[in-house]
TrEMBL record:
Keywords in alphabetical order: Cell membrane, Membrane, Transmembrane, Transmembrane helix, Transport
Main location: membrane
Family (UniProt): Belongs to the auxin efflux carrier (TC 2.A.69) family.
Upper classification of the organism: Bacteria, Pseudomonadati, Pseudomonadota, Alphaproteobacteria, Rhodospirillales
Gene3D superfamilies per record: 1.20.1530.20
GO biological process, one term: transmembrane transport
Pfam family, one: Mem_trans
Regions crossing the membrane: 64-83, 95-116, 122-148, 160-180, 192-212, 224-243, 255-272, 279-304
Location(s) in or outside the cell: Cell membrane
UniProt protein name: AEC family transporter
Bilayer topology: Multi-pass membrane protein
CC annotations in GO: plasma membrane
């Protein structure tokens, strides 16, 4: 119990520090969008390329984990649609509920898996990212196109290009390709990727804290509670059950349960603004789920046998 708590505490302290820095206007409002951009386009891709290109899975076979993860993602999406009447929201509000219940925060996830497990865990998490990000983005875009304020005006070609250009997906594909072909980063370049990658988790967590919107959280209602219940309780339980059903090993089970216990991604707020969703509701779900994850992560990690 204590080992899990001590592994998780630094993660949420960094989130709290990011929130405190933002509230005191240090180093200034202009810093945080740039820091978020650097983390998304430079630091995390460097971490993923470095880790995946040099990963040695040994006896671990990620195919079972990926199959279980895909099945639960689709099941969770279907469950959100079935429970829509409970939220009592309009179309744009439902799109934010949907995103809040299915999306995961990559920054918090990688930070947590690095703290709890290190190399092999990061590798499996990164492989899962390469599957989940395209699937989740397609599901969210379809939902926004159907129920968002912009109706059917969304360009699916543009969204497909957006997915193809996703720096995390590109980094995963490069790292996996290098691993499969036996290539490695050049001797003088590898330390650069390691140094850049080492900045990913702390900077990402600081930007998560800076992005929390307390006013939006205070105005959240039934939809926020439903989204958080689905994301932070039902989702990890389904993933745990799927891991047992698929007969996955301890590490794969841990990664899957950790995945489910993560808070909602801040990208849901950005996508809601761009595609006619309920942006204030999305911000409220992100903020509340991030706070509640301080409880759900250690609880579900203990359940997974960490």
């Amino acid at each position: 119990m204590l080992s899990v708590i001590f592994a998780i505490i630094p993660i949420f302290l960094l989130i709290a520090l990011g929130g405190a820095l933002k509230r005191t206007n240090f180093p200034g409002d202009a810093f945080w969008p740039l820091a978020d951009k650097m983390t998304y386009f430079i630091f995390f891709p460097a971490l993923l390329v470095d880790n995946l290109s040099s990963a040695r899975l040994g006896n671990l076979d990620p195919t079972g984990m990926l199959g279980a993860l895909l099945a639960v993602i689709l099941l969770q999406a279907a469950l959100v649609y079935l429970l829509r009447p409970l939220a009592k929201v309009d179309g744009p509000g439902f799109t934010s509920l949907f995103q809040g219940a299915v999306r995961f925060n990559t920054f918090v996830g990688l930070g947590a898996v690095a703290a709890l497990d290190g190399g092999a865990g990061i590798t499996l998490f990164a492989i899962a990212i390469s599957l989940a990000i395209p699937v989740l983005n397609v599901l969210c875009v379809l939902t926004l196109a159907r129920y968002g304020a912009h109706g059917q005006s969304t360009s699916f070609k543009g969204q497909a290009l957006f997915l193809i250009k996703n720096p995390l997906i590109i980094a995963c594909l490069i790292g996996i390709a290098m691993n499969l072909t036996g290539l490695s980063l050049p001797r003088g370049i590898e330390p650069v990727f390691k140094m850049l990658g080492s900045m990913a988790a702390p900077m990402g967590l600081l930007t998560v804290g800076a992005g929390l919107q307390w006013e939006a959280a205070r105005s959240g209602g039934r939809a926020v509670l439903l989204a958080c219940a689905l994301k932070l309780a039902i989702y990890p339980l389904m993933l745990f059950a799927a891991a047992k059903l698929w007969g996955l090993g301890p590490l794969e089970t841990k990664v899957m349960v950790l995945w489910g216990a993560m808070p909602t991604a801040s990208a849901s707020y950005i996508l809601a603004r761009q595609m006619g969703g309920d942006a204030p509701l999305a911000a409220a779900i992100v903020t509340v789920s991030t706070i509640l994850a301080f409880v759900t992560v250690p609880v579900f990690m203990l359940m997974a046998g960490v």
